[in-house]
Structure formats: C-alpha cells, structure tokens
Write a structure and sequence with these properties.
The protein is of the alpha/beta class. The protein is 44% helix and 14% strand.
C-alpha cells in the first residue's frame, strides 16, 4: 500500500469487541482484523461521559527522559488524582525512540500493544489496522477540536481517519554559545555563508568545531528545502540534480573542512555543547531542557537558510490501541487531558516543546513565558518556514538509510558527487 505523502503546513498558521467492563490489562489480544472491527465499533458508540467508565488501569508507552519524563509523570499523577472514574494511568518508559518503535512493532505482531503510545506516523504502517480511529470520540467528546493547531490536525488525518492527537511537538533551532560568539565578534547565522564564516573563524581562533546536527536525515531534508529542492517521495529520491548536488556540496564542505562533526556516542549534542566542546548545534527545541550553561550565555536562533528558509517540525502524536470498550473510553479521558489547554501549556513551558492548542499559545501564561524565553521566541520567529516530513510506506526506512549513509560518506570524507550518488542509491534501495 502506497500512501500520499504529507504536505507541510505552518504551525503558526496553524498535529468482535470483548465485552469487559473493567480494564486491568493493557494491550490488543485479538487479531488485526478483529482489532479493526473493535476499534470501529467503539469509535461509533457513546462518549465516555455518557456511558460511564469503570475503574481501570491505562498503560501509556513513551520515550521521555529527564525533565520531559518528570513533567509527564506530574501530569499523569494529576490525572490519576483528579479524574472521577477511578482511572489509573501507568507510564512505561520504553527507552529511546528507536526502542519504542521496535517494541511497538513487535507487540503489534504479538497482539499485545499498550492502551496508548507515542508514535510517529511513519511507525504506524505495519500496524495501522490496530490504531483506534478517534473521529467519533472527537465529535462527541472533545471541548474544541478547532483549537488544536491546523497543521497537527492535518498530520493526524493523513491515513483517511483521525489516527491520533498531537503531543510532544517541536521544531529545530540553532543553539549557540553566545559568550564565545561575542568574544569573536560573531552574530547568529542567517545564511549558509554565515555558517561557513563561523566555522572558519572558530577553527582559526579556537581550533574548535562550530556545528553539529542531532538529526542527519533532518539536516539533509532541511538543507534541500532551503535550496528549493525536493527531498523524497514514495517513488524515490527527488534531488539527483544540480540543486541537490549543490546542497550536498555544502554539507560535505562543512564536515570535510572540520567546521562540523558527527555526534557519535554522545547521541545528542546537548552534552558536548553544555561542556563547551562545540560552539553551536542544530536540534529540537526541547533539547534546551538538557542544556546547562553555567558561566556562559546561551543563544537560540532560527535555522539559517539559503535561497529559502525551512525549519523541520518534529515530535510524536499519541495513539490509542485498546480493544476493550471501557478501556478505550478510559484511554480517551487521558488523551483529552494531555491535550487540554492547561496541560499543553505546562508541558511546553517545562520541556521546551510547543503548545498544541491555539488557546495555550495565546494564553497570558505562555505569552509571558515566551517573552522571556529565547528558545520559544526562536521557534515562532521561523513559524512561516515550518515543514513536516513526508509519510508513506517505507518513509521510516528512508530515514534510517539516510542517517546511516550520511555518516558513512562523512567519515570517508567523500566528494559531493560520490556522497550524492550514495544517498540517492540508499533512498531508492530502501523503498
């Protein structure tokens, strides 16, 4: 099955049923076809509040760590204390995103999915028939779905039904050591040429690498879009052309000249950056919660562009997999809570993610926070340049192939044409 790729929208412009009445377990126990029938039946029934919910446990698989996990735990505890149905949410940290994705795929095959989980759309393809459609839940029991930002609503309808609700949404920004930049008379970059100048200056003056990217595939896609080039469709790589070569030349020049480095065993650049081992990096805005800057000033800026501006949006949605009717209703209560104005405002302020509702973004609480938070300010300064990655069968394989291939050509210090050929081949072979 091939699916039409997702079109990006700006965030600022704007992501046989078992008849049990108590839910003590978490997971799908029926076959895929039975799960689909159960999901459809439940989604066309009464709302949770109309039918009532029996006390039960809802299991939520996630991949949050650090401050993100702390805030998520606080929100779950609040829900457990305040909900009127006796629902107890149990959070299960499955490790990294890769770990979470692998475990979801394996448990889908075994029919043991949790009640709900964080996912990217590209993960869902192998078990899309186990996702509970939310359309009728939303129609009958959601306070104001239009308040959810349009781009996130669009993202969650790419499969022809509402597959999830937005949760931990982010965009990529440019984090930099403003103290070091001021010392060298440098400003935050706005163009690719600026990145090259900054790289050369840091190498000459401090013998220090000035740039890293947490997400290599995201870096390639953003760079191509910043040059006005296409990235990939379900038919294959779309940048085997002059613009694509110019883009890959820029990337290889950064690394071959020593201006940029791979993250390696650090996993994310927030660690080396906090320890002043690198002058700047591009990563998710939520990375700010992992940065420590004792004795120096943190700078945050929109992504630099080329002929165009383009900034990745990222972050997962929350999806429901529960097959029991009572458990679905209970899971829906927690999904509503996590996406409420109050919860998404707290989540955004404490983790660096972005609010998923316009009412949260417009609230006095968040506006006051944003006025004094350089990360949030940088995020919304580039909102008209936001894009999301395409989703189709094989898109997750493409992402993995690009990450691996880019690292290989950078480590080998390949020329731009060889690197381009390798990337195009890796993408086409992944589809």
């Amino acid at each position: 099955m091939k699916l039409k790729q997702v079109t990006a929208l700006g965030l600022a412009a704007a992501l046989g049923l078992t008849a049990l009445t108590a839910c003590g377990g978490s997971g799908s126990s029926a076959a895929s076809s039975e799960s689909t029938a159960a999901a459809s039946a439940a989604a066309t029934g009464d709302s949770a509040s109309a039918a009532g919910i029996q006390p039960c446990e809802v299991t939520f698989w996630h991949a949050m760590t650090g401050q993100q996990e702390t805030t998520l735990t606080e929100l779950a505890d609040q829900f457990n204390e305040e909900n009127e149905y006796g629902i107890t949410v149990t959070l299960v940290n499955q490790g990294s995103y890769d770990d979470l994705s692998t475990k979801l795929t394996a448990n889908a095959a075994a029919g043991t999915l949790p009640d709900m989980a964080q996912t990217y759309n590209s993960w869902l393809m192998p078990y899309l028939d186990m996702v509970v459609p939310l359309d009728d839940f939303i129609a009958s029991d959601f306070d104001n779905y239009e308040d959810v930002l349009q781009s996130y609503r669009d993202e969650n309808t790419v499969f022809g039904f509402t597959s999830g609700l937005p949760f931990n949404k982010s965009t990529y920004v440019y984090f930099y050591n403003k103290t070091m930049f001021d010392e060298l008379g440098l400003e935050a970059p706005t163009t690719w040429d600026d990145l090259m100048t900054i790289g050369e200056t840091f190498m000459q003056e401090k013998n220090l690498v000035s740039l890293g990217y947490d997400d290599m595939a995201g870096m390639l896609e953003a760079s191509l879009r910043q040059s006005g080039a296409e990235y990939v469709t379900e038919e294959g790589a779309q940048f085997d052309n002059e613009t694509g070569l110019e883009t890959v030349q820029f990337i290889m020049d950064l690394y071959n000249n020593g201006y940029a480095r791979l993250v390696g065993e650090d996993g994310y650049f927030s660690g080396p950056f906090s320890n002043q081992l690198i002058a700047a990096y591009v990563g998710s805005c939520t990375g700010v919660s992992y940065i420590t800057h004792d004795g120096w000033e943190l700078g945050v800026a929109p992504l630099p562009g080329n002929t165009e501006n383009a900034a990745n949006t990222a972050g997962t949605n929350i999806n429901m997999f529960a097959t029991d009717e009572n458990q679905q209703k209970a899971t829906w209560e927690f999904m509503k809570f996590l996406t409420s104005t109050e919860a998404t405002t707290k989540w955004a302020m404490e983790t660096g993610y972005l609010p998923v509702r316009q009412s949260a973004l417009d609230s006095d609480t968040y506006q006051e926070f944003m006025a004094n938070d350089p990360t949030a300010t940088a995020c919304y300064a580039q909102s008209d340049a936001f894009f999301s990655s395409p989703v189709f069968e094989g898109s997750y394989d493409v992402q993995n192939a690009v990450n691996t291939t880019l690292e290989e050509v950078i480590l080998a210090k390949e020329d731009a044409q060889t690197a381009l050929d390798s990337l195009v081949s890796a993408i086409n072979n992944a589809l």
